[in-house]
Every structure is written in C-alpha cells, then in structure tokens.
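protien #1 (seq + structre)
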Amino acid sequence: MLHQQIRGRWTRRGIALTIVGGGIALLAGNAISQQPLPKLQPVPVTATAPAPIPVAPAKPVAVLYNSLPVSHDEFGKFLMDRGGAEKLESFINIKIIDLEAAKRGLTVTKTELEAALNEDLSGLGEGGAAMSRSNFVNVMLAKNGTTLYAWMEDVVRPRLLLTKMCRDRIKLNENDLKLQFERRFGEMREVQMIIWPKGDDLKMIQQAYARIRNNNNEYDGEARKQANPGLAASCGKIKPITKHLMGDDKRIEEVAFQLKAGDVSEIIHTEQGYIVMKLLKVIPANEKVNFEKERPLLEKAAFEARLGEEIPKCFSELKKAAAPQLHYVGPTDWKPTGNFLDSVQDVISGAGATNPAVPTPGAGR
C-alpha cells in the first residue's frame, strides 16, 4: 500500500486506507433515521392531478453521429461490469462514513484536504525530505494504479472525517507523553530497507538475499530496484526507527535494535511482505531536550497515536449500525473457473494447446 512507511505518523493513515480500501465490507442500510411518511388523503375523482415538475435531462457522457447520446446509465453499467464488484466494498465504506458525517454535521474543507496532502508528502522523499506533488502523482500513485483525485476523495477525505468523529473519544495521560518523548528523542536506528511484496517468490528472495547480504554494492542495487517506488527512490533509506512502534512495525523495531552498524538482518516476514534491513548507524538519545518545553509537541504526537487506535473502533461501530448487505457480484459471463489460469498459461506457453482449425474460404461447398 502507498501509506505503509515505517513511521509512527502513518499508522492512522494506514488504518483509514484499509477501512476505505475494502478491508471491511459495508453497506449503508439503517444509517439514516427515516421519518414516517405523512398519511395520504384520497383525491376526489373530479380533482385535477398536479402537473409533474419538469426535470432537466442529464447531459450525456458522449454523443455519436452528432445526434445519438450515450447515457450515464450505459456508461455506468460498462464500468460496473468491468471492475465494479471489486470496488463496491470501497464505495460502500465511503458511503457509510459520509452518511455518519452528515448526521453529525461534519465536513472537510479544501484547505483541510490540501494540508493533509502536504503532510502526507512530508518525509516521503529521499533522506526524509518532502516528496514533490508531481513525483507523488506520477511515480507513487501511478505505479499503484490510482490518481490524485482517488487518493484525495477515497483516502484523505474519509480519513479526515473519521478523525473528526473520534476526537472526543481520546483522553491522554502522562504515560502517553512519556512514551512519545522516548519515541521522539530516545535512541534511534538509521536503516536501509528492502521490501519484497507478499506475492513474490520466496526462493527468488532468498537467492537475492544471499547475493546482497555481504555486498554493499549489490545491496544498494537491490534497494534501488525494489517494488515500492518511494523506497526505491531513496535507495531504501527511511526515517530513523524509534522505540514503541506498533503492529508489524514492532517486529521491525525489535530487529533494528538488535543489529550492529553494518549488519544485515535476516529476512523478516510481515503483513507488508518480506523485509530486509541494513543498520547504517546508531543515533544516540538526545539528552539536552527538556520534557516540559516539548509538552505541546508530545501531546500532539500522543493524540495522533491514540487516534490510530480509535479509528478502527469507531468504524466498527458504524459497520454494525449500517448492517451491510452487498448484492452486486458483477456479470456472470466469463468468470474464471476450475483451472482457468492454468489453461491460459498453457495457451501462452504453447504447452498442450492446439490452434483451432480455420475454415478455408469456399470449403464445404
């Protein structure tokens, strides 16, 4: 996923993207309370029915031959039949968030969206610098098959709405601040990371690992060509790893703090895929920082961390209230069955495949 960087500030974004991106299937059912319809009085036979209110026809999506319109319904069915079932979950998830936001009177402004995007870009560039918007769009988003519009509307906007829904649920204590103090100013590890996606062949990964483990040039080369475009652009260098990470990141933290400078870790299996790290250097704790002076910063960081815990809980409650029922499964024709994929491979490789006989013109007369 685009959001999965080894940084604490990405935790809430990752959760939001997982929720919106189909991690939980939802359908808005009873999310909006319905008012009972007023009782209708019978209309006398002699009464004149009111004239229908004219509705302007929707502008067609295209026109053929200067006069034949192509409707929204036609185009919509075309898109639904070609991937709509796979995207229904995401659509419904966003729908549920929007319905709840409307009930609570919550909105997101263009300014808030822009600010969130700028924060997303911070730290994604080489050496922990901000990534330019053009690189984010043309490299990171493009390689993952999405657009800036989809990122903003399907990830950032729902994330901001969920954030507003969860704010009042969070109560911080002093331990939260101490944890953030150690995370921000305690000892850290600067590493160079390579991630192979989950679907990659483990044997090939092990062969690559044997090649790069004791060769710095080979390691750098593998880091530059890895699948994650952000990591490839930075040669695998990420912001220093701190203590008190969460989830899969906790395993990364444990391994990083066991390495000595120059060491390369074993292959680590995580939800993201297979990970290898080389420890570049140990960054000692900053002993000159005053806790009280940093309190406002620590409170903000602690709030972000707790928010990452509350968002999935909040969304789980929305799911239960929505009582989802997904019915659309896509067209029934041309669905892969049995050993369909093997058959396709056979055709491609020519193994056991024969070309259908092509009738000769005039044959059989």
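ok now protien #2
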Amino acid sequence: MSGIYDCKVINQPFADPMKKISLSVFVLFGCTPLWAQQNVQKPDLIFTRNKTVLEAKIDSVGTESVYYHSFIQAGKGPLKLSLTEVTSVRYADGREQTFDRQPVQSGERINVKKEKRTSSRQDKPKREKPKDTGRRPVVSATIAAEGMRMLGNDNWVKDDEKAAFENGVGATAALDLHLTGRFAVSVSGGYNQWRVSRNYAENGEVKFNAKTSFTEIPLHLGLKLYPFKGLYLMPEGGYHIYTFDYQDGTELSEKIAGGSVAYGGRIGYELRTGVFLMDISAKYNLVNVGDLGNGFSGMGAARYAGVRLGVGFIQRKK
C-alpha cells in the first residue's frame, strides 16, 4: 500500500500546462522571421542619373531602354526607361549591370509618359518651310504728277482760233502686281488737261475772251519688263475718254465729248527704300481722236510725250 502513495511523475513537462504554452509561443515567433526571410522576394534596383533609385521587377534590358514593372504597384502595366537616364541596375540576386550612355540634352529628357506622347510626333516627318527665292509677288501703288507736250500735228499745236494745245498737265494713279522679279502687270488711270485762253480785241479794246480746253481720262493696262534692277520698259494701251470745250460767250461756243483707243509706252526707273517707292519715267501716247466735226473737224490723232514723277509704297504678299 505504501508503494502507491510513493509514486513519482515521469513526464515533467506535461505536469505544467502553462510551461507547454510558453514553449510553443517561443518556437513560433522564433521561427517566423527565418521563414519570412526565406520567402519574401527582393526588388530589383534601377539607379538613375538624377540620383533616384527605383524599386522594380526588371523584365528585360534592350539596346535602348530598360523594360520593367513597378515593384510597389504590382498591378501597374509595363514601363520603360531610356538607358540614357540609367547608370546601373542591381538584380535581386545580387548581379549588377552598368551603362555608359550619354544623357540627353536638357528639354529632351525621356520618361515613360513623355516618351509615349513624343514617339508619335517623332514618327511624323517634319515639314520644311519653303525657301525664299526672293521673287515673291509684291504689290506697289503710286500717285504721280505729269507734264506733257503735244507733238507733230499742226491741227493741235498751231495758234489759230481754237487749237494751240502745246503744253498740258495731269495726274495719274497706278497699281502694279509684280509676279516675278522681272515682270509686272500695271493698271492705271488719270486726268490730263490742255487749256488755252485768248482775248479778242478791236482797235486796242478787248471785245471778248475765249477759252479752249482739251481734257481726257486715260485708262491703261501695261506690262512692265525689268531688264535691270529698278529700270523698266512698259508697253501699254487702253481707252481715253475726252472732251473738247470752246467758250467765248457767243453762239460759237460748243462742247464735244467722245472716246477712242490709245496706245503708247513708258521707260522709267524705280527707287525702292524699304516700303517706300519713287518712280520717274518718260512716256509717249497716241490717241486716235479722229474727225469730231464742227469747229474741231480734221483734228486727227493726238500725239504727245510726257514726264511722270510718282511716289508710293510697296508691300510683299504674305
């Protein structure tokens, strides 16, 4: 009986439940860091020239770029970084790879988003501006004063009762379109007048005054040819609207209007300074007046020469 009461506990650890729980907790937390260290994946590292280190999962390294996924944002799509922006990469297993590409100039730095936007621009061919040949069309406009003198026909210049149209004055406006450096089209219009005034006297006493005038509105189209810089030759032709007027205060007064074809030419020189223009030229015109009847019958063609001095401006077409 005494052997029963002297019995000893053989498995001491199981005799104390709290010690068992403490031992289990110690083993669990002691082994967890070792298990985590063996199973957590390390990132690849990308070292950039601006001293930034990117944690990534490198997919591949090409001849121009590094292709990778973000290590932090695993669900983000594939990314790309130019090798000119990368100094080296270090893989998770410890391997390293360096690059000696020169960085791009300021303003051309490539990142992922900019590279996607600029790639489409680079694919498009650049448009080249057309070369300036120096012969773009230009427009010039001038206004001018003219002095003229009748030539040849005695019916116009002789000093009789109605004619004697020797010297005249006028004004013109011209618009030129320069198609090339040596060719231009000119459109012009103006107003010319010859005027004679006479006093008729008897026994030294003036009986009456007579005024005779010849006026015309010339409308011309000409072609300017420039053999040398500034110098031009211009054949021209058009239509003249004219009026003969004789007034002496008697029943002999009359006024005749008409029109006829005219032609002629000019030789001149243009002096250009910036947008300003000076035009000096000499001209010759022939107007087929014909037979007007009455007191002006038999006048024939009017031929006159003149000098023109004009100023204006010139503007290049954009």
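The first strand starts at residue 44 and ends at 48.
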